């Protein structure tokens, strides 16, 4: 495979895997909400938010950190120390993951908001997952460093399949055998059972990665044995290096993502002080954190796949002093991200209510309004993910931590003021989400200009997808609402509208972007897309 095309192909593989995983995750939440109810979905969201924060401390950025450290050694053909970093990372992940898992198990009642005690059990059941996720992250980061994204991609899909299946089964069984029939008890035990699926998914993904490593073990050993050109570093040096590199990245991700957890806690406590009962708080929070965020997280996950695959490439190029090629790789990542993100944002805004109604029949309509108003945050979060990945890749992990800390302060102040002095309610969390992303994008962009003299490719990356998306929006809205006037079937109208709108986007994008064929050729299955593009141009 041509080295020039590695970045886009790797990012595309991760995007496809992320999309499949998120679609599975989205689809199973509809039957899950029928089993546990809106209140139970609120408890799941609170537990998952707290779990994600603990996971970030223990292991969330481990794949990025490991891929960065090992890819730098590989670029210098230092295979011996690359392997020692892998082993040292396993030790680091096991120790830190074990400590955080114990904190989760015994401190869950402190982490969950005081007026939502029924969510505590769901968080406690997630504690073993934190330990296993760290080890899984090391294996994923190891293969990403070698620019092999397939193991990570396949493991993500397997993880989500088992997560979905076990979540539904365990939620039903927990309710059947432990709940007393009241709404609160059903919600509590259903939420607790659903989190068993998360652990099952991680276990399956880890077993798969161990199998892949076992298959490649002899080839890895031969490469290490042939390396006689480099001084072997001690494990003391390796662990010190891991801590120095991993800690700022993890702290940065922790600060970058803790706003979701804090916003949930602030919403629960402040609305409770205003007289809203705990059940209503849980139901409204489910509209935002479960329904709205589950849908919007699909394109957000796609946009985060690009910087994940970019980090080892950027690290290797920057380590060899090739700044020009570094900027070129960043441009490719931005273009790929916007090719996906812009139509997703426009499409979700256009068909927000039909999509939410189809996926979550129990919604009270708030999630659809949130999706309509907040879909453009996909673009902001996509750019912030890329800029964070760039700064981490060039060895400036403290900068994303600083920008995230500044954005977090602004976010918290905004949430408190909006909840206390306005009637926005749950919409205050959406406003804060937008403010947070804007602050991160603006600050990170300044630092990228400073260290790389980088200029965002506005015209190349944004103009063509935007023009194509405007046409797509007209097609989607016209077809859906026109057909619905005639046949009144949400499923049929939505399916036809989405297919034809996607086709319209692809055709218009090819017509307005002269470099479309080159960009499409670097994606999986790109040769077929290029043939279609050539026929359109004729």
TL;DR of this structure?
The chain has 538 residues and is mostly helical.
What does it look like?
- With 538 residues, the chain is mainly α.
- It is 86% helix and 0% strand.
- It contains 20 helices and no strands.
- Helix 15 runs antiparallel to helix 16.
- The radius of gyration is 23 Å and the shape is globular.
- It starts with a helix and ends with a helix.
- The relative contact order is 0.11.
- The N terminus is likely disordered.
Helix content: over 70%
Tell me what portion of residues adopts beta-strand conformation.
Answer: under 5%
Query: How would the global form be characterised?
Result: globular
What pattern of helices and strands is seen along the backbone? HHHHHHHHHHHHHHHHHHHH
Number of helices: 20
Explain the layout of strands and helices.
Blueprint: H1 3-60, H2 62-75, H3 79-111, H4 120-125, H5 127-145, H6 150-178, H7 183-194, H8 196-225, H9 235-273, H10 278-319, H11 323-350, H12 352-359, H13 366-374, H14 377-393, H15 398-421, H16 427-452, H17 458-487, H18 490-512, H19 516-521, H20 526-537
Helix pairs in contact: 1-3, 1-5, 1-6, 1-7, 1-9, 1-10, 1-11, 2-3, 2-5, 2-9, 2-10, 3-5, 3-9, 5-8, 6-7, 6-8, 9-10, 9-15, 10-11, 10-13, 10-14, 11-14, 11-17, 12-13, 14-16, 15-16, 17-18
Pick out its properties.
538 residues, disordered N terminus, mainly alpha
């Amino acid at each position: 495979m041509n080295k020039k095309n590695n970045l886009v192909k790797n990012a595309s593989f991760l995007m496809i895997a992320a999309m499949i995983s998120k679609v599975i995750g989205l689809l199973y939440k509809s039957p899950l909400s029928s089993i546990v109810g809106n209140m139970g979905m609120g408890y799941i969201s609170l537990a998952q938010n707290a779990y994600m924060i603990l996971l970030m401390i223990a292991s969330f950025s481990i794949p990025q950190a490991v891929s960065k450290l090992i890819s730098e050694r590989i670029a210098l053909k230092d295979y011996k120390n690359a392997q020692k970093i892998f082993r040292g990372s396993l030790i680091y992940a096991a120790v830190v993951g074990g400590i955080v898992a114990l904190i989760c198990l015994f401190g869950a009642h402190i982490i969950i908001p005081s007026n939502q005690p029924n969510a505590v059990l769901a968080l406690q059941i997630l504690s073993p997952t934190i330990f296993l996720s760290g080890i899984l992250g090391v294996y994923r980061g190891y293969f990403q460093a070698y620019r092999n994204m397939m193991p990570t991609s396949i493991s993500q899909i397997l993880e989500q399949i088992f997560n979905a299946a076990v979540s539904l089964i365990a939620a039903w069984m927990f309710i059947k055998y432990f709940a007393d029939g009241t709404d609160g008890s059903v919600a509590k035990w259903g939420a607790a059972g659903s989190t068993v699926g998360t652990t099952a998914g991680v276990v399956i993904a880890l077993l798969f990665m161990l199998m892949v490593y076992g298959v490649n073990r002899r080839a890895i050993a031969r490469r290490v044995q042939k390396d006689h050109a480099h001084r072997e570093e001690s494990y003391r040096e390796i662990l010190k290096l891991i801590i120095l590199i991993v800690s700022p990245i993890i702290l940065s991700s922790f600060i970058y993502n803790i706003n979701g957890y804090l916003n949930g806690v602030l919403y629960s406590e402040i609305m409770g002080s205003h007289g809203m009962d705990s059940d209503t708080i849980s139901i409204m929070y489910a509209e935002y954190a479960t329904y709205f965020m589950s849908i919007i997280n699909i394109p957000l996950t796609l946009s985060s796949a690009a910087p994940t695959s970019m980090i080892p490439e950027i690290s290797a190029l920057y380590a060899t002093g090739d700044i020009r090629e570094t900027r070129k790789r960043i441009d490719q990542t931005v273009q790929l991200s916007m090719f996906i993100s812009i139509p997703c944002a426009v499409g979700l805004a256009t068909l927000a209510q039909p999509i939410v109604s189809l996926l979550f029949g129990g919604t009270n309509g708030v999630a659809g309004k949130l999706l309509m108003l907040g879909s453009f945050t996909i673009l902001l979060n996509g750019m912030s993910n890329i800029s964070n990945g760039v700064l981490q890749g060039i060895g400036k992990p403290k900068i994303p931590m600083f920008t995230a800390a500044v954005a977090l302060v602004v976010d918290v102040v905004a949430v408190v003021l909006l909840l206390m002095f306005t009637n926005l309610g749950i919409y205050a969390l959406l406003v804060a989400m937008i403010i947070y992303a804007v602050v991160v994008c603006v600050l990170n962009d300044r630092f990228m200009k400073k260290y790389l003299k980088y200029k965002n490719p506005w015209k190349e990356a944004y103009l063509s997808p935007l023009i194509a998306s405007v046409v797509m929006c007209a097609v989607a809205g016209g077809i859906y609402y026109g057909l619905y006037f005639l046949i009144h079937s949400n499923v049929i109208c939505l399916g036809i509208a989405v297919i034809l709108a996607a086709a319209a986007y692809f055709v218009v994008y090819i017509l307005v972007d002269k470099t479309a064929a080159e960009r499409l050729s670097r994606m999986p299955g790109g040769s077929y897309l290029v043939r279609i593009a050539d026929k359109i141009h004729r």
